[in-house]
Amino acid sequence: MKKKIAIIGAGISGLSLAWYLEKYAGNKVEVSIYEASNRVGGFVHTISENGFLFEQGPHSWRCENFSSPLDELIEDVSLSQDIVEASLDSKIRYIYYNKKLQKLPSSIFSLWKSPFKGMMFKAICKDLFTRKGRLEDESIYNFISRRLGVDIAETFFDPLASGIYAGDISKLSMLSTFPILKAHENTHGSLIWAAFANRKKRIKKTIRTLKKGMQSLTDKLACHLQGNIELESDFHKLEFLNSKIILHINERKVEVDHIFLAIPANNLLSIFKQQSEKMASLFEEIPSNRLAVVNIGYNENVLKYKGFGYLVPSNEQQDILGVIWDSSAFPEQSASQNETRLSVMIGGGHCKNFPADNKEAIDMALRGVRSHLNIDQMPDAICVKIIQNAIPQYNVGHSESLKAIEAEIKALSPKITLLCNSFYGISLNDSVGYAKKIAYEYCCSHAV
Description:
Elements: E1 3-8, H1 12-25, E2 29-34, E3 46-49, E4 52-55, E5 61-64, H2 69-76, E6 83-85, E7 93-97, E8 100-103, H3 108-111, H4 117-128, H5 140-147, H6 150-165, H7 174-177, H8 179-188, H9 191-197, E9 205-210, H10 215-224, E10 228-230, E11 235-241, E12 244-249, E13 252-256, E14 258-261, H11 265-273, H12 277-284, E15 288-298, E16 309-311, E17 320-324, H13 326-329, E18 340-347, H14 358-373, E19 381-392, H15 398-412, E20 416-418, H16 428-445
Parallel strand pairs: 1-2, 1-14, 2-10, 7-16, 14-20
Antiparallel strand pairs: 3-4, 5-9, 6-9, 7-8, 11-12, 12-13, 15-18, 15-19, 16-17, 17-18
Helix pairs in contact: 1-10, 1-16, 5-6, 8-9, 11-12, 12-15
């Protein structure tokens, strides 16, 4: 008899999980996906406005040595021909520092001409003479300022964490966000010695996207899945009956053998509060920050810079987190050679003036590009997406919270499995890789 499996959430986690369950188990499983919104893809969202391709969610993914979980999935669904490598110009990155854009050094030679050389020299000396930390987990700010100095923490890691997590480095966990640096300290006692020890390990890192946008992957997955995808299906209650799980979806009950929850922690609060106050409080320990994405398009080349874009340290007291120069990084996605596409990010852990509506977000974005990039003319296309619970925050203690959540879930029922970027990594690669892992483990443990 087929195992009846329910997946809650049709984002990249839920869709890739369904794909791998069907790949490994074939017709031994009956998979149904229930999505509360009216579209698949979750935060992956590509739109077209006046001929411009805009990403309102993830723009790209990182690939090492021509392989990644996302690359494997893209090959599986026959989309490899649509992969686009970031331009050579995209290797150029900037930081808005001391009220102007400063190019980040890309080599030891460019460092000596950089305004950051004094800061970097002090950081190297500090790291070499700093003892290994004793805490199992600490904030990014504590770790980096302890090893490399406050200037490095505030000038580089603050905007880096904003760019990835839209978070506050005084709260974000080093262990859960940059585990490789934590491991380097534990293994080598120094980040500099770790870099020296690993200097011969040549890893080719590239940034990739899809020519028609990231949503072309989630759309393709949805079309190729054998199971049902039910949109506007609100999952709001969970019950247990003998060996079965009963899901309350809209006004009906659905009986399944296993449920995979591929939705953020904040969406699970009300569900599990009915089962356990402790579990609900654990989900509250994984908050999400707000983010506004303002996509701007011009029918001519108005950008005087080449590169991937820039980030803004919070101590610069600006309205925006940074800007991705989409047309420079991925020119293959442009309708013409002359167009300019920008994605302005607003919000995050340090934001004190989050836009109240689309108009205010547009005003903030246009002020930012006018001040930082000297672009005065009005755009030919502009779109806004305001996301109230955009990026999960892996704050200090996240790994312990996750262990406690897993224990509570297991005690409640072995037929419930969590995934999604609230728990096991926020990137697209993290989501796809974890979905593949748990699909394989489920099929092996249930002999399907």
